[in-house]
Specification:
The chain is an alpha/beta fold. It is built from 7 helices and 7 strands; from the N terminus they run βαβαβααβαβαββα. Helices cover 41% and strands 13% of the residues. α5 links the parallel β4 and β5. α2 packs across α6. It binds zinc ion (ZN).
Amino acid sequence: MSRRALVLFSGGQDSATCLAWALSRYAHVETLGFDYGQRHRVELDCRARLREGLLRMQWPGQLGDDHLLTVDVLGQLGTSAMTDYVAITLQSDGLPNTFVPGRNLLFFTLAAGLAYRRGIDVLVGGMSQTDYSGYPDCRDNTLKALQVALSLGIDRALTLETPLMWRDKAATWALADELGGSALVELIRRDSHTCYLGQRDRLHPWGHGCGTCPACKLRAKGWDEFNRRTPVLHPAGSSAV
Ligand code: ZN
């Protein structure tokens, strides 16, 4: 285990799980977040709490620097329900209007630039093609193509790791359990943020959120499925709380 990794770390459930995954595999792991004017900017506040929580777990010597880049230029490209206060609906092309075109392409490109400067050769992202919103920049083929383009573009062999690509949300909770047991599951449940609307005033069995936006519904559904599969480990985690 000698490689250095950079995790795209938003403060959500997926990227928090990816950070634990990277810590379990790489000698040195740094984190990168993006402020792009998202409505749920509260997720950026969750990043520090999650990092502090992970430092108390079994990987204290491996977690390196945190980086935060401002990319509010994304908001200048046009309206989306992720950056503007409009209702979440489906667009005429079938994609939800939470889709921010080019977002993950830009994020990985910036991450590759930072990785070049930091002597890092592995980028880790929480994109998934399994339980997802249909965003085309989360697809495996998109990211495999990007891996080639970025490696050529900086003349270094970069690896883009996406450990959640073929996992549904229940399997993502199960991965957290596998990596860090109930302590990691509880850290992610309480301190990660998923809700598109940025609501954190109520703690549900599956975490904080409005409970009605697509991101909250997906997270709650995955939590319930995870607990049905592992009821002995997490007896308090049923939706009856
Ligand atoms: Zn929500």
